[in-house]
Amino acid sequence: MEQEQPGIGVSVEEDVREPRRYKVLLHNDDYTTMEFVVQVLVGVFHKNENEATQIMLNVHNNGVGVCGEFTAEVAELKVSLVHRLARESGYPLKCSMEEV
Dihedrals φ, ψ of 14, to 5°? Predict the structure, then answer.
């Protein structure tokens, strides 16, 4: 007769949660050109020209535009990349992230 070993064959339900999601936002300013914002949206966020233009117009007209939703690590990386590209090009473009 086989003895049951403790813990074997017993399923443990783990608390599995989806990772938190963050919106990455671009903020309007009076110095960054619309062309540069479109370039950032195409290069960093992989938007096509039409999507990039629509987001840029949201930034321009509403003060802020959503570039996409990402996990925390990816959102942080994209915010950092936007700031670096803007600095290198002499623009004060602000980019932030907020939890969805």
Answer: -95, 150
